[in-house]
Amino acid sequence: MMKGEGKMLFKSKMKWVGLVGLILSIFSILVHLFLARFTEDGVSDYQSSITIFSWRPIFETLDPSRTSPLYRRLWGPVKPLESLHPDASPRGYYADPSSQTNGFLFVRIQGGFHEIRNSVPDVVVVARLLNATLVIPEIQSTTSSKGISSQFKSFAYLYNEDQFMAALAKDINIVKTLPKNLKGARRKKEIPVFRVPYAASPYYYLHHVLPVLTKHSVVELVVSDGGCLQATLPLHLEEYQRLRCRVAFHALRFRQEVQELATKVLHRLRAPGRPFIAFDPGMTRDALAYFGCAELFQDVHTELIQHKRSWMIKRRIVKGKLSVNSEELRLNGSCPLMPEEVGILLRAYGYTWDTTIYVSGGEVFGGQRTLIPLHAMFENVIDRTSLSTGWELSRIYGREDNLNGNYPVTPPSVEEVKVEAWKTAGPRPRPLPPPPARPKSYNIEGWWGWVAESDNEPESTVIELRTNAHKLLWEAIDYVICVEADVFIPGFDRDGKGHPNFASLVMGHRLYQLAASKTYRPDRREVVKLLEETRDHLYQANHTWLMSIRKQLRRSLLDGLTEASTRSKPLSFLSHPVPECSCLRHDPNETSRNASSPFNSQLDAALGTVQHCPVWMDNEIISRSKDKENEEDLDEDDSSASGLFFRHSGGNHESGGGEINKEEAQLEDQDELEGGE
């Protein structure tokens, strides 16, 4: 009896302990949810040890010193470009805009993020060229039909209108809307409209648009291909190139809510105190279809790419054949580098497995499956969804109507259709009407059921239109992160029309804002050739192959600039805004040491003739010249830079181990550093 009572008492106490523990757990969860939801900065107030990220808060590898040769090789500035600085100010006589203009210029810009960003500076230049008053460009033609918030109108959905107008007050006249009488005329379609060709010349505007503008006092331009003015302008119009830079890099600021969220995401990325790499895959369905890279996937995605390519051929966007040899195009460098290949490049160069990699871009064709190899090589592969919460993103969308009723629903059964049709059929024996068409229930992220139904692309639903509008905001956040990243590497630099894409604009902005920041521009043809050489032993590469990869990436820091100046700049000035928008600071010590350096001629070939900066800018660098001399003495030794290719752990955590002896490693890294300078 005593034993039975003891057991009952023990069980009763355990029940109470469990109940108290459950209550405390629920209370703790509620407190955390309350803090995360209602504090001013939300999750950003958490310390880095309590993180919403998908990586470990404590890193196993030891960070190299910021003054060590290894750190400078991986993260340090590109020395030949350190003297290059932004300078977009007018360099001669530059008149203020006239109060008497030839009329109003109303512009509708169509396209994605990079097309809008590339077009707005062109529009501003055209307005000054025509002496026209620019109406704030329209980038979202309607809000109701796209299901997005009506509190942001067009341009203000993405950019800060007031900042845009204030920054360009000395360049052109800008108004927010057309006068009432011209608004009515536009609704009635009584104002002349020009569908501007891609990269139109100044002659086109002066001889076709200007006479109509003078006659009607207003014209409307429709820009749809990501640029309405040719990238290279005559020498006497060079000030217009600097105007493009002032628009793109100073006047175009994102809406305050978007800019604040981008700053928060960047702060969370830097919270652990480590540098990070930004990677833009550039793998969109349009680009893959345009360049004929369908066979890179060998699954259902191949059919989707071919369907898009067929659609492009019918509309004469693509002039080639439907069936092309994707492998041959890949070997020629015409296809994107896969995320796995980019990961191999970075690991071979010396970036350790715990390096933080931020993946940008609104769409990675093939889904997360294509990123699995990159995740296997680097533990800390993240994107904006890892660094922000759903409610933070919803705040930048604004108040949007609930579209749950617009989602595809299960079609009614045949019996229900027949009964309903019979009731509304009218007097008998009138034949029954045909049953209504079955609503399409395909999912844009899943099986593309429309491929077999029609040769045309499906019409976008309201949900898809809303998602496309949201992508503008997502890519704005990615743009800020990529520009500010310690290292940037693109997977591809062309869009679905063969024009420079998001990554090209990022590289151009980085070249303007901080030219010495590490921006790899790998030669895809050479990279693929190197990868094919050791395809069977890719993850156990030998030392010679590793050195070849490292030399290729190192050379891309400068050789890539030469390539961009010949391939990208003729299509998009903002992808390579030098030498027009940059200047060189004069350092007497550098001049005396490097007067005969071969890198000077290489720099001239990559950048062209760059004007020297004003004297007041040169004076700032003299005070730091002695410190720079002392730092260069540290470049003689970097014995920790070499190591195993893909080792995660072991007795030595510095750089993944060390099978290469110290003497060989010193020679290797001295060669790296000499080449980098």
From TrEMBL:
<dbReference type="GO" id="GO:0005802">
    <property type="term" value="C:trans-Golgi network"/>
</dbReference>
<keyword id="KW-0328">Glycosyltransferase</keyword>
<keyword id="KW-0325">Glycoprotein</keyword>
<dbReference type="GO" id="GO:0016757">
    <property type="term" value="F:glycosyltransferase activity"/>
</dbReference>
<keyword id="KW-0812">Transmembrane</keyword>
<comment type="pathway">
    <text>Glycan metabolism.</text>
</comment>
<keyword id="KW-0294">Fucose metabolism</keyword>
<keyword id="KW-0735">Signal-anchor</keyword>
<dbReference type="GO" id="GO:0006004">
    <property type="term" value="P:fucose metabolic process"/>
</dbReference>
<keyword id="KW-0119">Carbohydrate metabolism</keyword>
<dbReference type="Pfam" id="PF10250">
    <property type="entry name" value="O-FucT"/>
</dbReference>
<dbReference type="InterPro" id="IPR019378">
    <property type="entry name" value="GDP-Fuc_O-FucTrfase"/>
</dbReference>
<keyword id="KW-0472">Membrane</keyword>
<comment type="similarity">
    <text>Belongs to the glycosyltransferase GT106 family.</text>
</comment>
<feature type="compositionally biased region" description="Acidic residues">
    <location>
        <begin position="666"/>
        <end position="677"/>
    </location>
</feature>
<keyword id="KW-1133">Transmembrane helix</keyword>
<feature type="compositionally biased region" description="Acidic residues">
    <location>
        <begin position="630"/>
        <end position="639"/>
    </location>
</feature>
<feature type="region of interest" description="Disordered">
    <location>
        <begin position="624"/>
        <end position="677"/>
    </location>
</feature>
<protein>
    <recommendedName>
        <fullName>O-fucosyltransferase family protein</fullName>
    </recommendedName>
</protein>
<keyword id="KW-0808">Transferase</keyword>
<dbReference type="GO" id="GO:0016020">
    <property type="term" value="C:membrane"/>
</dbReference>
<dbReference type="GO" id="GO:0005768">
    <property type="term" value="C:endosome"/>
</dbReference>
